[in-house]
Predict the 3D structure of the following.
Amino acid sequence: MQASQLQLLNNQLNPHFLFNAINDLRALILEQPQQARKGLAQLSDILRYSLQPLEGDKVALSSELECARNYLALCQFGLESRLSYKFEVDELSLTCLVPKLMLQMCLENAVKHGIAPSVEGGEVAVVVRINGDNLEIQISNPYICQRSRQPSLGIGTKNIQDRLRLLYQGKASMVLTQQGKSMLAKISLPKEYV
């Protein structure tokens, strides 16, 4: 039962992202063919990574970060200069194991709720470090107050929390907090190496 639940959660790559990426790249083909080729290669890498069968339930953080960078680079085609991003990663964490596509889902939430609705856009920052026996991942993005929406747990966030619960039996957590004009997602996982 747990394996089938995890498989279902792992297969929830957002189709809206795929359609938007394809449309953004299609618009570039005639005007900026080099950029379009680069974007198609990044999209291809993301799809290959997401469809690659797992030999367990987790992947090396280095693979997850490569997918995350490709994802954010693709988002820049649609958002242009409104999206900037930076990564600060402890080198010792690169061989740690993490749930596949977890980082991409977090970044999708950051872009969808923190960057896209803002005229100015903003920066998504990813910080990864080892703290004792835990791997800690923090993602920050601008916070956009949407008064018309009822506070709720989004599908992506719920997916991540469900996967953490199934994979780590209560030893991992994801906490969302608003700090001033920023939204922070903090994920803490038991440190495991490839």
